[in-house]
């Protein structure tokens, strides 16, 4: 692999960045995830959504269609759009910062029914693997900041769950990154060593380059190496619901099944903004955009900058031969030879069901179909996509000893998959801060399919920005900051390039 430049380019100069020619890359976010230049956008699908495993578990929970008040209030201090982990955490920190201010959270559908309620249940901080990508785009100091922030985010999430006794199936243990061929293992080793040599924190990462030992540790037959550190899996809807219930006790107004359609300037002398919804208008002084993949439908300046894309998660009930004492006991990021990745969550503190996310070759086929049929860019009604399930099945049968020959009885096997909508950021990192040209409107979105490892610090960070604190007070990487220059650069890139580089 070519050595990445050691000097730090100007922050936000990432458009056009390319990665090594070798197809055995580590960056699964680039794999099957290049945004369309067409600036596709859309509001949440109104009906016919697939039900994630998490949403299937809570069908009798009254929070799903909760409305604090029968009618929308005519005015509030702050409107937060989106009730996923971003919007819910922003509401929490808003209450703690300004307990006297009124807050309403608008949700287009059921509570937490977007990406948070549809992911694979993994909170895995990236601790080295994307370092080369971010170094090439932003310089090594920013790349190290990103790695450090993801570790801090994971610690914040785990601390909150433990301190508040949240019932969300939290697991804390070793996650394994496992390259499946020699080329991927070579690149992984180069990236890891460069990160270490430039001051990256690696003492907590256990590494073996011996394929025999790697296969023994990971239980993956074709492992060529193994990198292990602490991460978590959890039931993301239950975590978000716990936080929202506390918000409601403190005075938040939650309104589900309320679609924010447009935002207009308020009339002179009154509130700054009017949020027009399908149930009426709400005047306010502050708007926070926390709808992630859907934000460009409401804020046209972000078309092509944050792009929605369907992604599939597979639920697998392991056979008896892989259950009990033989059950999988670790989470994984399996690095495939062509740049793809399996993200694996075995729910080993709960029901033992195994979740498969990430981008495999079948996901790449789905992405091509969406490019040809852009009206499906927000279609989270997709389920049981066979091309993706086939890839999952082939992987487990080839790599987990005893799975291929196991007897599969009723209730076992590859029984369900569902779709969620990822908000792809045009430069690969989220947007946190005030919207350019829209004083009083803020954003925490564009998490690029990696929100669980970013939002527990990004959400309080945007509240600090709202409070007029300097960016340094957020503790977030500089490249996450929404600035006019960053937005203008990315808008220009979407206009002139057939594809926007994801760095």
UniProtKB/TrEMBL annotation:
Transmembrane segments: none annotated. InterPro entries: FAD-dep_OxRdtase (IPR006076), FAD/NAD-bd_sf (IPR036188). GO terms for cellular component: cytoplasm. Residues 77-453 form the FAD dependent oxidoreductase domain. PANTHER family: FAD DEPENDENT OXIDOREDUCTASE DOMAIN-CONTAINING PROTEIN, SARCOSINE DEHYDROGENASE-RELATED. This is DAO-domain-containing protein. It comes from Paraphaeosphaeria sporulosa.
């Amino acid at each position: 692999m070519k050595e990445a430049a050691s000097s730090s380019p100007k922050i936000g100069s990432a458009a056009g960045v390319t990665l090594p020619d070798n197809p055995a890359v580590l960056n699964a976010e680039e794999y099957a995830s290049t945004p369309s230049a067409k600036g596709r956008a859309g509001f949440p699908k109104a009906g016919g959504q697939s039900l994630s495993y998490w949403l299937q578990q809570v069908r009798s929970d009254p929070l799903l269609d909760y409305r604090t008040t029968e009618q929308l209030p005519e005015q509030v201090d702050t409107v937060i759009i989106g009730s996923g982990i971003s919007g819910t955490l922003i509401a929490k920190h808003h209450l703690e910062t300004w307990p006297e201010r009124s807050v309403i959270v608008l949700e287009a559908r059921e509570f937490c029914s977007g990406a948070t309620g549809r992911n694979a249940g993994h909170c895995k901080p990236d601790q080295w693997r994307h370092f080369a990508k971010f170094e090439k785009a932003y310089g090594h100091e920013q790349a190290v900041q990103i790695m450090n922030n993801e570790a801090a985010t994971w610690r914040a999430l785990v601390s909150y769950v433990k301190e508040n006794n949240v019932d969300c199936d939290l697991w804390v243990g070793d996650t394994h990154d496992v390259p499946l061929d020699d080329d991927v293992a070579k690149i992984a080793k180069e990236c890891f060593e460069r990160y270490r040599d430039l001051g990256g924190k690696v003492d907590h990462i256990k590494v073996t380059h011996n394929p025999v030992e790697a296969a023994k540790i990971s239980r993956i037959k074709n492992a060529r190496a193994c990198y292990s550190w602490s991460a978590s899996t959890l039931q993301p809807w239950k975590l978000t619901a716990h936080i929202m219930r506390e918000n409601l006790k403190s005075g938040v107004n939650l309104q589900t099944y309320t679609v924010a359609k447009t935002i207009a300037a308020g009339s002179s002398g009154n509130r700054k903004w009017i949020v027009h919804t399908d149930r009426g208008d709400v005047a306010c002084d502050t708007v926070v955009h926390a709808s992630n993949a859907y934000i460009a439908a409401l804020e046209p300046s972000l078309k092509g900058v944050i792009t929605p894309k369907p992604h599939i998660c597979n639920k697998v009930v392991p056979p008896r031969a892989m259950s009990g004492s033989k059950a999988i006991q670790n989470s994984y990021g399996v690095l495939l030879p062509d740049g793809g990745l399996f993200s694996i969550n075995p729910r080993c503190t709960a029901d033992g069901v195994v979740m498969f996310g990430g981008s495999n070759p079948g996901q790449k086929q789905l992405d091509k179909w969406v490019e040809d049929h852009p009206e499906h860019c927000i279609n989270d009604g997709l389920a049981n996509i066979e091309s993706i399930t086939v890839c999952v099945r082939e992987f487990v049968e080839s790599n987990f000893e005893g799975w291929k020959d196991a007897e599969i009885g009723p209730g076992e096997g590859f029984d369900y998959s569902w779709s969620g909508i990822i908000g792809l950021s045009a430069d690969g990192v989220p947007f946190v801060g005030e919207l350019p040209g829209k004083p009083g409107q803020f954003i925490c979105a564009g998490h690029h399919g990696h929100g669980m490892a970013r939002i527990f610090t990004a959400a309080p960070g945007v509240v600090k920005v709202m409070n007029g604190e300097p960016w340094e007070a957020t503790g977030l990487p500089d490249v996450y900051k929404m600035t006019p220059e960053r937005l203008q650069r990315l808008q220009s890139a979407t206009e002139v390039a057939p594809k926007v580089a994801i760095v």
